Amino acid sequence: MPSPQAHRPLRLSLCPLLLACASVAATAAPVAGSSAAAVDASPAATVALPAAYARWQSSMDAFAAADRERHPQTDGVLFVGSSTIRLWSDLREDFRQLPVVINRGFGGSTMADCNYFVKSLVVQYQPRHVMVYAGDNDLAEGRTPAQVLESFQSFVTAVRTALPQTRISYISIKPSPLRASLLPRAREANALLAGYVRTLPNSDYIDIFTPMMAADGSVRTDLFGPDRLHMNDAGYDLWRSVISAYVGRDGVMQAREAAPAAATGPATAAVAVPAAAGGIVRVSVER
What we know:
CATH topology: Rossmann fold
Low-confidence stretches: 6-45, 249-287
Shape: globular
Mean pLDDT: 79
CATH superfamily: SGNH hydrolase
Number of domains: 1
Radius of gyration: 24 Å
Helix content: 25-40%
Strand content: 5-15%
């Protein structure tokens, strides 16, 4: 039988290799508390998405890369949702009175998608106020108004569990000429969402539907671009005017300090909620 000394050269020769591997592993490990560690904790930064959400891989990777370059400050106002948010190129300029404005819109997304990505798109930034716009793509893909509500309820639960003091504002589903056939379902969904938001503390339902409709009941085409789905500058100007009433440095709705640029009259402490094709319900949003 070989003596123990016969194996000593082999064991000694492996020591430098093991030490080198340990050194590489230590270098690759993120430092706890660093911004890189916070970003890499997001699944989108490191893990391939499930097949149902794979179409958003490039969007999530782009957000993660932007965060690694410069991670947004906490306590900001975060906008999340579909292409209406993503294409809002002047978002930070339009709300320049706010110290931190974060745009996490990803085109074509649904309320269900926003709920799935809520931790990486919302919670990790620890905003004081979240503005949500999603739901019309859900309807276009065949989901029911009740399913849109369920996705938003799950979204709210996730945000409030992690960030109980964060204000949540739901921007109503907008009408668009291209999707005129969906107007009845949009009205139904908006009524359900407004009713739910009414039960929540520290929250708002922002009616953008009503000022985007003409007096004859048709959608205002002057607010849209050639595709009749996405808004033009006039549309975004209207949105800025309406939404400005709900944001402020102190995080409290400033409805009495800004008036929407719409034919619906001066801003009040309540919003108009389209309950059905023939009526409007007034819903208080002050808490």
